[in-house]
Amino acid sequence: MERAKIIKEELIEQNLHFLAVYMETKNACLALLSENEDKLGTLAIAVPKPKDLLGPASSSILLGDRNVILARMFAEHLASRKAKIALVSIYLETVDEMRAQSILMRLLEKVAQAEMGKEGTTT
After folding, report:
1. Which domain holds residue 15?
2. Could you tell me the CATH number of the domain that includes residue 14?
3. 13 burial class (0-12, 13-18, 19+ CB within 10 angstroms)?
4. Can you give the pTM of this predicted structure?
């Protein structure tokens, strides 16, 4: 039985500290993306489309009303990329969504690279 993978990453950009906590199980993944400290923010869920159907993953907001576009976008991206249910939380204190989008995408890519490194070292 394989246990959940947990990865923590951070990125400092434009004198701002961005954090990621990522957890992946066999059928789902959860990404908490936040500014300055680990906090739960606007939470979106996305379910990937079946392989025989084209189109993006379908998503909904479960919690919160700030950063809804960003939360849904990242949840859909993660669900499509991993072919799993994806939950993504976005918590931003001072940065607006437009400015945070590219920074958080780089942070998520950093998480993906760390995950690839972990897979290479596990037996």
Report:
1. 5-121
2. 3.30.230.100
3. middle
4. 0.88
Q: What's the domain count of the chain? A: 1
Range 22-27, long-range pairs (CB < 8 A, 24+ positions): 22/111, 22/115, 24/82, 24/84, 24/115, 26/2, 27/84, 27/85
> pLDDT per residue over 67-112, tens digit each?
999 999 999 999 999 999 999 999 999 999 999 999 999 999 999 8
Helices (H), the chain: 68-82, 97-121
**19-77 residue pLDDT tens:** 999 999 999 999 999 999 999 999 999 999 887 777 778 999 999 999 999 999 999 99
DSSP state of 68: H
Residue identified by tokens 């066999």 is: 26
